[in-house]
């Protein structure tokens, strides 16, 4: 009799788990290399906000292309300023730097970068991830409840078959919990730290022959056009 009750309970929990998994929202790209910054307060505020526009979770990213005198000097100054704002480098090459900056310092860092050269292109985007974030938090809570039920069933299991079956489901639940925790952490990081991509290239200068034509151009321009 106990065995039948155990099997019935096991089936009920399995149905509950698969119903949760079928409603999974779109996931974020996994960025396991990003550090764990610990944004529990941000998560708490987001879950408590029910009014549109209040405590929304918005991720910001910006892109800036500059024409500069010296690539090496530009990159050095950008890195020095990055330390002042407590940001960190995501990717860096000879002519590109991708950084994460605390969202409240995003405008200040961009204003500094604009002073390093002539702006060729600039863009900024914002993405509201509030709904996806709350869905993931809710799913995580449900999965943790499912895991607790499986652990209770495991304590009552009497046969090797039941133990192996429950442990298999526990492994699946734990894997899904880890994935959701990664998505939630990534969302919190994306909100707290804005992503900025800055590309820079050195201004082209004319060679010896080029300076001759450069002078002729300005001489002819002076004859026909007076500022």
Strand content: 15-25%
Low-confidence stretches: 1-8, 15-53
- Element order: H for helix, E for strand: HHEHEEHEHHEH
CATH architecture descriptor text: 2-Layer Sandwich
Name the shape in a single word. elongated
CATH topology: Alpha-Beta Plaits
Task: Return Rg in Å.
Answer: 28 Å
The secondary-structure class comes to: alpha+beta
Largest sheet: 5 strands, mixed
Helix content: 55-70%
Q: In the CATH hierarchy, what is the class?
A: Alpha Beta
Termini separation: 100 Å
Look at the structure and name the CATH superfamily.
Answer: ACT-like. Chain A, domain 2
The side-by-side strand order for the widest beta sheet comes to 2-3-5-1-4
Number of strands: 5
What is the tally of helical segments? 7
Domains, number: 1
Q: Could you please describe the fold and organization of this structure?
A:
This protein has seven helices and five strands, in the order H-H-E-H-E-E-H-E-H-H-E-H. It has 227 residues and is α+β, with helices and mostly antiparallel strands. It has one domain (2-202): Alpha-Beta Plaits (2-Layer Sandwich), CATH 3.30.70.1150. The protein has a five-stranded mixed sheet with strand order 2-3-5-1-4. 20% of the residues are buried. The model is unreliable at 1-8 and 15-53 (pLDDT under 50).
């Amino acid at each position: 009799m106990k065995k039948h009750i155990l099997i019935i309970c096991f089936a009920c929990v399995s149905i509950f788990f698969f119903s949760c998994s079928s409603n999974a929202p779109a996931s974020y790209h996994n960025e396991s290399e990003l550090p764990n910054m610990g944004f529990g307060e941000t998560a708490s505020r987001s879950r408590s906000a029910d009014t549109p526009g209040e405590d929304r979770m918005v991720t910001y990213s910006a892109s800036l292309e500059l024409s500069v005198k010296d690539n090496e000097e530009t990159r050095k100054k950008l890195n020095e300023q990055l330390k002042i704002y407590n940001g960190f480098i995501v990717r860096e090459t000879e002519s590109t730097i991708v950084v994460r900056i605390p969202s409240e310092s995003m405008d200040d860092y961009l204003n500094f970068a604009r002073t390093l050269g002539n702006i060729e292109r600039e863009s900024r985007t914002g993405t509201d991830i509030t709904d996806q974030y709350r869905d993931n938090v809710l799913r995580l809570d449900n999965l943790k409840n499912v895991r607790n039920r499986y652990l209770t069933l495991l304590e009552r299991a009497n046969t090797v078959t039941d133990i192996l079956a429950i442990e298999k489901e526990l492994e699946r639940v734990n894997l899904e919990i880890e994935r959701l925790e990664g998505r939630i952490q990534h969302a919190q990081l994306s909100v707290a730290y804005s992503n900025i991509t800055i590309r820079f290239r050195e201004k082209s200068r004319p060679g010896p022959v080029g300076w001759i034509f450069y002078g002729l151009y300005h001489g002819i321009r002076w004859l026909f056009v007076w500022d």
